[in-house]
Design goal:
Largest sheet: 5 strands, mixed
Structural class: alpha+beta
Oligomer: single chain
Number of domains: 4
CATH topology of the largest domain: Nucleotidyltransferase, domain 5
Number of helices: 16
CATH architecture of the largest domain: 2-Layer Sandwich
Distance between the termini: 46 Å
Helix content: 40-55%
CATH superfamily of the largest domain: eRF1 domain 2
Strand order of the largest sheet: 7-6-5-8-9
Order of helices and strands: HEHHEEEHEEEHEHHEHHHHHHHHH
Length: about 425
């Protein structure tokens, strides 16, 4: 994903649905399991107010997704799918779904910024396999090179007076084959521009490959093993080189970031400045860190461009502010934000959103230790969901109520 694509996500109109659905294919009946998982998540998202037309747009992306990766990732605006794709690593939970004023893209950033373009080569005396993996995660290109074969290629010591002649002929042939492989490899390297070329195979074939490659390719060669059983094994061995490259890049980028920030030059620090740069497509590299201060600044940044008359968006941002305040342990700020959000949602006459807000307040009260208040708010939310027939939310609230035990009432957010 390029920064221009990321910018387009934030330029669209919200609310946004950000979905990360586990689609691992290494289990029995993987396909039906994924479809059932989506069916349950779909019902819950509908209860949370996600429009039916967005869920319908996601429906055709689910079947067969277990064959493409461990996660199906989808980001939508209020009216359409903005981005969808498959990620190799699973999300922290079976379903991670967020419906809110901003898209949730940290998993996408973590994946795409760790991709390293590289090439893997498995060389033998008479052939080679070459696989190239790109930086954009668009798949891989595989090339097989078949050289000339003779009976002498596999005879290391034929014996007798003719041995030097046989060995010389074999080495000449190996060199000829290595030159052909080097030519194809050079074409792949020029096309993909990899950070390194991981090589394994016959020792002499690998040596000849290095000798026959031009300097720009030879400087990229990294031997990762001997005669490995398959090109997949070479790619697996290249994993340590990928990790080392990512670590090195991260260190260099952090050093460069600190330098630019100290000079007040080309570094944007914090979500507000970063989002502004993203919106102008002026971001070369995006560094992500999970910080509570950043969450607070994101809410403030989103609020700055919000029309005063948009009560729905204002209520969503107030709820976000309340949850950030809860995480920071700021009970007074949380109480103020929850009270104003509830007022706006009640004026809008949106029962489902009101139930969600009451549920969020109940969880906040529980975090501050006010179990009595938490139970009261969850009961209010339950009554709302029961009235509108939101069965999935009812089950969630019942589970939370079952965990609550009455206790003392310390200071925490409180609303009428």
């Amino acid at each position: 994903m390029r920064t221009t694509e990321m910018a387009r996500l934030f330029q669209a109109s919200g609310p946004f649905l950000s979905l990360y659905l586990t689609t691992s294919g290494d289990v029995e009946n993987a396909g039906p399991r994924v479809e059932l998982r989506w069916k349950n998540a779909r019902t819950e998202l509908l209860d949370r107010g996600v429009p039916e037309h967005l869920l319908e747009a996601i429906d055709p992306l689910v079947p067969g997704s277990h064959t493409a990766g461990a996660t199906l990732a989808v980001v939508t605006s209020i009216d359409r799918v903005l981005w969808s794709g498959n990620l190799p690593s699973p999300p922290p939970r079976e379903v991670v779904a967020r419906w809110g004023p901003l898209p949730s893209v940290v998993p996408l950033l973590a994946h795409f910024q760790s991709l390293v373009p590289h090439v893997a080569v498995l060389a033998s005396r008479a052939a080679a396999e070459i696989v190239a993996r790109t930086a954009e995660g668009e798949g891989e290109e595989q090339v097989a090179v078949e050289g000339e074969r003779t009976p002498q290629l596999t005879r290391s010591a034929p014996g007798g007076w003719s041995q030097p002649r046989y060995q010389h002929r074999a080495e000449v042939l190996w060199e000829r084959n290595a030159a052909e492989v080097a030519g194809v490899l050079t074409e792949v390297v020029d096309k993909v521009r990899p950070r390194f070329v991981a090589v394994a195979g016959d020792v002499r074939a690998v040596q000849f490959l290095g000798d026959k490659s031009p300097k720009r390719v030879r400087e990229l060669l990294r031997v990762v093993g001997g005669e490995l059983p398959s090109i997949e094994a070479v790619l697996e061995a290249a994993g340590s080189l990928v990790a080392a490259t990512v670590d090195g890049d991260t260190g260099e980028l952090l050093d460069r970031f600190e330098q630019e920030r100290s000079q007040r030059d080309l570094a944007a620090d914090g979500p507000a400045a970063t989002f502004e740069a993203l919106a102008r497509a002026q971001v070369d590299t995006l560094l992500v860190e999970d910080r509570l201060d950043d969450a607070r600044e994101i809410v403030a940044f989103a609020a700055r461009g919000l029309p005063e008359e948009d009560s729905y968006a204002r209520s969503s941002l107030l709820l976000a502010e309340a949850m950030v305040a809860t995480a920071a342990g700021e009970s007074a700020t949380a109480a103020t934000a929850f009270a104003e959000a509830l007022r706006l949602v009640e004026e809008l006459g949106m029962p489902r959103e009101l139930g969600e807000a009451r549920m969020a307040l109940g969880r906040s009260l529980r975090e501050f230790g006010d179990l009595t208040g938490a139970r009261a708010e969850l009961e209010r939310a339950r009554a709302i969901f029961a009235r509108i027939g939101a069965e999935t939310r009812l089950k969630a609230i019942d589970a939370e109520l079952a965990e609550l035990v009455e206790g003392p009432t310390p200071a925490g957010p409180s609303t009428p």
